[in-house]
Each structure stands twice: as structure tokens, then as C-alpha cells.
Design goal:
The protein is α+β, with helices and mostly antiparallel strands. Strands 5-14-11-6-8-7 form a six-stranded mixed β-sheet. The protein has a four-stranded mixed β-sheet with strand order 1-12-13-4. Strand 9 and strand 10 form a beta hairpin. Helix 3 crosses helix 5 and helix 5 packs parallel to helix 7.
Length: 365
């Protein structure tokens, strides 16, 4: 069973039934996102959809204090402002429920996510990588070269992002828009934007790594077996011996091949089945799942021409701070002359590429 975030646990109070309902929504959302027709227990998606809609309606009734059965029809029930406000409060809670798991699943290798209250910011400490100086001297010395180290400090300040959705009041009343579909679309929109911000911060930090030939070089042009292994060794050594991995999209990882021209790849081999080698010279390869870039039609977001070398067991390269919970604002039914209703979801978070760990990047030619 999935672990619920602290704010969801507080929201559900001591009700085991409500906690189970929010936990089941994680599975329901995963099935919807992956396009599956049933879960591992054989329960169909349509059956889960009916249960989730019932759960959603029950939560709205609990928060608003109004029951649909007390109204003449659904249209009258939906006209109450507290009903709509309760509905979007639940949508906000579902957003907070799903996004952390989704981000950790897709970008947990490079990002660490922390939550805080309203008005908080995230202070990140940067520990020095070097060691104390070991001095050589005579036996009659009381002290040697005095060494002192200081931690660095940077702050991530969250910024508010919002989604404003306008729909026709008439369409809402006659049921053209599915509540479940709207929840999924809202969550996916915020989740995708957070992924963009995390990857952009990570990519910018990797692009800023030194590429001058020498001991300090962490950005290498062109893949070869020797340079890749040498970079991995350097990253491992300067991260205290933590095991490194090669990280990239499937297309980028497919370029990792042995230097020997005698290597044979058969149709049944892992490289053909998976699309890349899961292990190269004792170093694991980890795929970053490609995502759509909705700012340009049919484009993709992640760089297929770069392989990153990181140590995921050390300090993450990117820090994400989420401030408070997701808030919502719903206009009244007749606020606009054209009877259009506008609902806005607010999410406050900050992203920064701040880390004590060392990483490298291989730029494929």
C-alpha cells in the first residue's frame, strides 16, 4: 500500500475508509496514465472509475456539508458555491497526493523533493569535498598546519504557479466534462511543468561543467569506452567511492557499446530487447523516460545527445521545495457575462541545482 503524504493524512483525520480511498486513487491514476484496462487483481478500470467518482462525491458532500439527495437535481447541487469550492479542494488534495510519487519515480535519480509550510523556504547546506591537510613535521612540534572548513549555504525560494481553466457553465451543468478526466488532466499538467523545471535546472548545471582538457574536465565530447570509464572513475572517486551510473534517454544509452569490433549482438540479447545495455563495464545504465515538449508540437523535452554520469546514492543534483498544499479558487456561477466559469489551481514550489556531489556529462557527437 502506498504511503500517504503528511498533509493528506491530516486531511483525512482518523478515517481509515477515507485514507483507503485516497490510496486507491493513486492506483486509479496510474492505470489511467498507463492506459491499462484493469489492475493486478483483475478489477476493471471502469469499475475503479465508478468507485472513485463515488468517493469524490462523498468527499465533496463531507466538506461542503451538503448532500446531492437534498437537492432537486445535480444542476442545483452544483450551483452551490461551497460545493464547487469543496470539489476543487479535493482536486488540490489529489494533486498533492500524486505529484511527489510521480516525480520521484521519473526523476528520483537527480532530484530530492522536500515539503514545507506556507512562508517557508529551503536552506541547502553545501559540504566541502576536500579533506583536512595532513602535514609532515618534526617530533617536537605541538601543532601542525591548522585547517578549518566551512559549509556553504544556498536558499531556494518557492514561486507560485497556477492553472486557470475556463469552461461553459452550460457544459458543466449538462455533464459534458468528466470530473475524473479533469482531475487527471490538472494533475498531469502540474506534474509535467515541475518535471520541465527540474530537468532544465539539471541540464543547465551539466552544461556549465568544465570541458577544458585536463584533470578538471567533467564535460566530454564524443563517446568512447576509455573516456566514459575514466569519467565514471573520477566521479566515483570524488563522491567518496559511491557507485556511479550512466543516465540518459533510451536513444542516448543505446550509443554505449564496447570498443571491441568483435562484439556480437544477437536478436535475443538484452541490447535488442531493452534498447541498451543495462550494465557497461560494471557500471549500471539508468533510463530517463522521454517526455513530450508541449511548447512545440511533437517535440520531446530530454536531450537524446547526452549521457550523464552521476552517483544517485550521494547528494542529489537538484533540490525541489514544495510550499504548502495546492490551493484553488472558483468563480461564482454568474460572475462573467458569457456565463463562463473559471477555476484556478495554485501550486507553489522552487527548483535549484544545488549539490555537494560531483557529476559529469558525455556529449554525443
Amino acid at each position: 500500500m502506498a504511503k500517504l503524504p503528511n498533509n493528506v493524512l491530516a486531511f483525512t483525520a482518523d478515517s481509515a475508509e477515507r485514507k483507503e480511498g485516497y490510496t486507491n486513487f493513486i492506483e486509479y491514476y496510474s492505470l489511467y496514465k498507463e492506459g491499462k484496462t484493469q489492475n493486478a487483481n483483475g478489477v476493471s478500470f471502469s469499475e475503479m472509475n465508478d468507485k472513485m467518482l463515488t468517493f469524490f462525491s462523498d468527499e465533496i458532500a463531507r466538506l461542503s456539508g451538503k448532500k446531492q439527495s437534498d437537492c432537486a437535481d445535480l444542476a442545483q447541487y452544483c450551483n452551490f458555491s461551497d460545493v464547487k469550492e469543496a470539489a476543487f479542494a479535493v482536486v488540490g488534495m489529489l494533486t498533492d497526493l500524486i505529484i511527489p510519487d510521480a516525480l520521484i519515480k521519473d526523476l528520483g535519480m537527480i532530484a530530492e523533493i522536500k515539503n514545507g509550510g506556507w512562508g517557508d523556504s529551503l536552506k541547502v547546506e553545501l559540504k566541502p569535498r576536500d579533506l583536512f591537510v595532513v602535514s609532515k613535521g618534526g617530533r617536537n612540534r605541538r601543532e601542525y598546519d591548522i585547517t578549518r572548513q566551512f559549509k556553504g549555504e544556498k536558499t531556494i525560494v518557492p514561486e507560485v504557479r497556477g492553472i486557470s481553466v475556463g469552461v461553459s457553465l452550460y457544459d458543466v451543468l449538462k455533464g459534458t466534462y468528466s470530473l475524473a478526466e479533469f482531475v487527471s488532466k490538472a494533475v498531469l499538467s502540474i506534474e509535467t511543468q515541475m518535471k520541465y523545471d527540474i530537468y532544465d535546472a539539471f541540464a543547465a548545471a551539466m552544461n556549465a561543467l568544465p570541458n577544458s582538457v585536463g584533470a578538471s574536465q567533467l564535460r566530454i565530447s564524443g563517446f568512447s569506452q576509455d573516456t566514459a570509464i575514466a569519467l565514471a572513475q573520477k566521479v566515483q572517486a570524488w563522491n567518496g567511492g559511491a557507485k556511479p551510473v550512466f543516465l540518459g534517454t533510451k536513444l542516448a544509452l543505446s550509443k554505449i557499446l564496447p570498443a571491441s569490433t568483435n562484439t556480437r549482438i544477437l536478436l535475443g540479447d538484452e541490447y535488442v530487447k531493452v534498447g541498451y545495455m543495462r550494465d557497461f563495464m560494471g557500471i549500471s545504465t539508468v533510463e530517463l523516460e522521454q517526455v513530450a515538449d508541449y511548447t512545440s508540437e511533437f517535440a520531446v523535452k530530454l536531450d537524446d545527445a547526452k549521457i550523464y554520469v552521476i552517483c544517485p546514492g550521494t547528494d542529489k543534483m537538484v533540490k525541489v521545495f514544495v510550499e504548502g498544499s495546492t490551493l484553488s479558487n472558483v468563480e461564482s456561477n454568474y460572475a462573467n457575462a458569457n456565463l463562463q466559469q473559471t477555476a484556478t489551481l495554485y501550486k507553489s514550489y522552487g527548483v535549484g541545482a544545488i549539490s555537494s556531489a560531483l557529476a559529469g556529462v558525455i556529449e554525443l557527437s
